[in-house]
Amino acid sequence: MVLLYWGADTMWVLIAVGLILLLAVVLGIQAHRMRVLGGNEELPGMRGEVTQASDSRGRAYALVRGEIWRVHTREPLAEGDVVRVRAARGLTLEVERLGEPSARGVDESSTNQGGGS
Fold it and tell me: Of 21, 44, 82, 100, which residue is 20 to 30 A from 88 by alpha carbon distance?
């Protein structure tokens, strides 16, 4: 009786809506079970650039993923050095320098000794 009142076309619409809702539930469950792809979990392996040279304790600041982070390393870092993140410990990143030390850490007054007078 209900089919006669609604008609055959209405039944197909209800079936289509039911399938769409079932698909939405399945996709929601899959998204809930997926591993987190953001946050500090993705930082190890990323590269960054040192924005402030390291102090005597090996602490410096670097631009990683568009954000300034406090970084720590055992080797001295100069401004402009490229680093790779090894681990994230709270708000501090353990990093290692990639390549040779930057020439920007050299005092620029020693490179411009030809005074012009």
Answer: 100
